[in-house]
């Protein structure tokens, strides 16, 4: 499978996540719900790695990689805590589009920190995503 197929599957599972999480946060503290989900993700991710990664791969991970994956993990955790609280307080159909503004943030941050180009296509696409998110979030 190529990057597009994996990206579409990611979007599908993210969409399912929003619906399942909205039902799951009903009647429970959003932080506890995030902790439960994170535990499931932890066990699932380590299980997949255990069966697919060659022996010794963990020991070969460079300190720089550990640092950036750790900081990324913290950012993910903060995102999930905020997302679950937003789902608890709002409609999934309004929360999810705002959450997808992450695409716009990625475009800007990738240009600033990774040197990726901000072309007319990325600016137009990012603008359309932002406009769509705002329109969908409005009552």
Give an overview in words.
By secondary structure, the chain is mainly alpha-helical. The chain folds into 2 domains: 3-90, no CATH class; 100-139. Helix content is 80%, strand content 0%. It has 6 helices and no strands. It has helices at 3-24, 30-52, 63-89, 92-99, 102-114, 120-137. Helix 4 packs antiparallel against helix 6 (120-137). It starts with a helix and ends with a helix.
Note the topology:
Elements (H helix, E strand, L loop, with lengths): L2 H22 L5 H23 L10 H27 L2 H8 L2 H13 L5 H18 L2
Low-confidence runs of at least 5 consecutive residues: none
What string, H for helix and E for strand, traces the elements in order?
A: HHHHHH
- Strand fraction band? under 5%
Distance between the termini: 39 Å
Share of residues in helices: over 70%
Overall domain count: 2
State the helix count.
Answer: 6
| Count of strand segments | 0
- The global form is globular
Radius of gyration: 17 Å
Task: Report the biggest beta sheet as strand number plus sense, adding barrel if it closes.
Answer: none
Structural class: mainly alpha
Arithmetic mean pLDDT: 94
Short synopsis of the structure:
This protein has about 140 residues and is mainly α. It has helices at about 5-25, 30-50, 65-90, 90-100, 100-115, 120-135.
